[in-house]
Every structure is written in C-alpha cells, then in structure tokens.
C-alpha cells in the first residue's frame, strides 16, 4: 500500500477544498508514492514524535496541526520545526496534516467532541455556504435511469440525511449532427427530435470532477448537454463548530465537571454561571472565539472552545456559559477520527497512536 492510498482516504473524508484560505493542510514532507510501513497519529509534530516514528519503523506521520504552517525561508535546524523537517526528510518519513478541512468536514473535529459529550441531534454550528453546486443534464429516456444512478454514485443528490435526491422533468430536445459527428440517435445532416428527461441534482463542489466523470461515462450522447450552477445554499452537514442537545438537562457545575472529565482538562476557565440548566450545547475544537456570536444566535446554553480572550468573556452577558477547555484538550480526539478512517478502509494495516505527551500547556 502506498502512502497516497492512506492520505486519499483522509481526503475522501475531509477534502482539501474544505480548508480555510490561511491553512496549509495536505502533504507536508515526503514522497506519497512510497510504500507505507505504518502510520503514527498525533495532534502536533514534534522531534520526539519523529524519533518515535524512526524507532518503530514507521514512515508516515499524520497530524492535525500542519508542521509547516507559515513560510520557511531556510532550513538550518535553528528551530524545532526546521529540526523536524530535517529529521523526517533525512529518515524517509512523510508528514501529512488535516487541519481546517478536518474541522469543517462532515462529522469532523467538533462533531467528535459532541459525541464524546453524549449529545444528540448534532449539526454544524456555522454551516459552510458557497460550496454547493447543481447539475442539470438532459438525457434520452432510454438512459435516464442509468445516468441518474451514476450521478448518485458519484456523490450527487445527497441533502442532509437524504440521498438519491433529484428533480426530473420530461420533454424533448432537438439537434442536427454535422459532418464528422457520430450521433447516438438521428442522422448526420438531418434535424432530429428526441424525447428526453431533464435531471437535476445538487452536490458538494469538491465532488465536481467525479460527478462529471461518471456523467460522461453513463451518458450515451457524444456531446452531453448539461449546466453547472454554483449555489449559495449552506451544506447542512459541513461547517465550523457543532451544536447538539443533552438528553436530560444538567446543572451548570455538573456539566462543567463532565467537560473536565471527558476532555481530561487540567483546568477550566469559564464565564459567570447563568443559573440556568444546560441542555443546548455548542462547541468548536481549538481556537473558536470567532463562533461565540453563532453560539448566541443558536440559543446555546453553553459554548465550549479554547483560547477565549479576556474581553470575550464579557460577551456572555449572562446569556450563555462560555468555557475554555484548552486547545489540545478539545482537539485530541482528532486522532480517533484518523484511526477510524484508516482502519475501516485498511483493517490489517498498522496504525499507532503516539505515546509522546505533546500538550505544550502545563497546569500547576
């Protein structure tokens, strides 16, 4: 198995097109065409983790945070990042990262947080907009079912918890094949009228290549007629953060204790207690202050994230409980997502969790 087989499985779950513009997810170091000898999973790449990979004969490290995030002008070993790059490259170890694309993916980082807290009815807190397309294609009646099935198999026609969604309308199309054409029906030089079906289906824009590939494969026409439209509709399963509900309301202090236990927090920082029961819970793994307003709009009772600024706590204003549970603590279960993706597709492949404690924050 090649390294690219493993990274492709990650990208099938969390396409690189879902990453934010400032991010640098994807292959950081190494040749993806090499045979994979094992995978080591971590949140951040450190020298100790590269050493761990070397000692265990593993040549692929998969991390949540990119090793190479900002521009690097020289590699001299002067910084920990430069030393990691030199050591990994020198020992034939590939480094791959899935960061904000994994944050935004369906059932990504924040969704896993919500699962760990035992929430129900989980959905993105801020669904992504502008990454949805609609295809409209005209197909002879004899092949409409085959083309529709091909579009569905390529990932079109999924809306929330529903799949095989399409709109269909019967009509007729006209065309005249010119010299050099090889028409599926009709004759060269003569105007032809064909009973056709208009098929419409939506799909995430990152599936465009596969949708078109399957369309051309299933459509009988030499030149299929179709339209692609970019939609502004949000994708209800993809986006930043997550929101869900507890099966039974909890006292605020009891819920804070649950957060501390589930995420193994050294400490919690939080805004003033509101005096209300906790039922509706919003969260975002990592630095998520930018979603506080979304949590308020969603009428969440509590918002869990990391690195909340001093002035941000005033925004709670008695309307929500803000909880800073730590950056590493809220993203640690990303390793479980990687593990599930890889072992599901490659059940007999060696996948290891790092044994190195890498949380750079310590508590007294």
Describe the structure.
- The protein is α/β, with parallel strands linked by helices and 364 residues long.
- Helix content is 27%, strand content 29%.
- The protein is built from eleven helices and 17 strands.
- Strands 5-12-14-15-16-13 form a six-stranded mixed beta sheet. The protein has a five-stranded mixed beta sheet with strand order 1-4-3-2-17, with helices on both faces.
- Strand 2, helix 2 and strand 3 form a beta-alpha-beta unit.
- The radius of gyration is 25 Å and the shape is globular.
- It starts with a helix and ends in an 11-residue tail after the last strand.
- The mean pLDDT is 96.
Query: How many strands in all?
Result: 17
Rg from alpha-carbon coordinates: 25 Å
Please indicate the percent range of residues in DSSP E strands (runs of 2 or more).
25-35%
Fraction of residues in helix:
25-40%
* Separation, N- and C-terminal Cα atoms: 45 Å
The average pLDDT is 96
H/E series: HEEHEHEHHEEEHEEHEEEHEEHEEHHE
**Helix run count:** 11
Envelope shape:
globular
User: In what order do the strands lie side by side in the largest sheet?
Assistant: 5-12-14-15-16-13
Q: What can be said about the biggest beta sheet? A: 6 strands, mixed
Label the structural class.
alpha/beta
Residue stretches low in confidence (pLDDT < 50, at least 5 long) are: none
Would you spell out the secondary-structure blueprint of this structure?
Blueprint: H1 3-13, E1 26-29, E2 39-42, H2 47-55, E3 60-63, H3 80-90, E4 94-97, H4 100-104, H5 109-116, E5 120-123, E6 126-129, E7 132-140, H6 144-153, E8 167-176, E9 191-204, H7 208-218, E10 225-231, E11 234-240, E12 242-250, H8 252-262, E13 269-270, E14 278-287, H9 292-297, E15 302-306, E16 321-324, H10 327-331, H11 334-345, E17 351-353
Parallel strand pairs: 2-3, 2-17, 3-4, 14-15, 15-16
Antiparallel strand pairs: 1-4, 5-12, 6-11, 7-9, 7-10, 8-9, 12-14, 13-16
Helix pairs in contact: 1-11, 6-7
């Amino acid at each position: 198995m090649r390294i690219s087989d493993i990274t492709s499985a990650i990208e099938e779950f969390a396409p690189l097109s879902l990453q934010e513009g400032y991010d640098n997810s994807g292959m950081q170091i190494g040749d993806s065409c090499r045979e994979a000898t094992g995978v080591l999973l971590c949140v951040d790449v450190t020298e100790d983790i590269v050493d761990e990979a070397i000692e265990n004969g593993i040549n692929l490290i998969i991390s949540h945070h990119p090793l190479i995030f900002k521009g690097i002008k020289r590699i001299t070993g002067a910084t920990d990042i430069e030393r990691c790059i030199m050591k990994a490259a020198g020992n034939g170890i590939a480094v791959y990262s899935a960061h904000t694309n994994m944050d935004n993916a369906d059932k990504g980082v924040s969704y896993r947080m919500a699962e760990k807290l035992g929430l129900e009815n989980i959905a993105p807190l801020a669904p992504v907009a502008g990454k949805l397309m609609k295809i409209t294609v005209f197909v002879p009646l004899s092949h409409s079912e085959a083309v529709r099935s091909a579009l569905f198999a390529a990932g079109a026609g999924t809306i929330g918890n529903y799949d095989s969604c399409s709109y269909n309308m019967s009509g007729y199309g006209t065309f005249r094949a010119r010299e050099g054409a090889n028409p599926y029906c009709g004759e060269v030089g003569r105007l032809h009228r064909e009973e056709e079906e208009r098929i419409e289906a939506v799909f995430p824009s990152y599936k465009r290549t596969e949708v078109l590939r399957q369309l051309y494969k299933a459509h009988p026409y030499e030149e299929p007629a179709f339209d692609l439209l970019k939609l502004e509709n949000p994708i209800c399963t993809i986006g930043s953060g997550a929101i869900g509900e507890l099966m039974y309301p909890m006292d605020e202090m009891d819920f804070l204790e649950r957060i501390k236990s589930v995420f193994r927090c050294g400490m919690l920082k939080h805004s003033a207690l509101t005096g209300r029961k906790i039922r509706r819970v919003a969260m975002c793994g990592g630095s998520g202050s930018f979603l506080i307003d979304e949590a308020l709009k969603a009428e969440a009772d509590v918002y869990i994230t990391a690195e909340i600024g001093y002035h941000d706590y005033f925004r709670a204003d008695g309307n929500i409980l803000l909880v800073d549970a730590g950056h590493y603590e809220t993203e640690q279960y990303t390793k479980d997502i990687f593990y599930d993706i890889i072992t599901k597709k490659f059940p007999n492949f060696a996948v290891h969790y790092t044994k190195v404690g890498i949380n750079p924050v310590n508590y007294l």
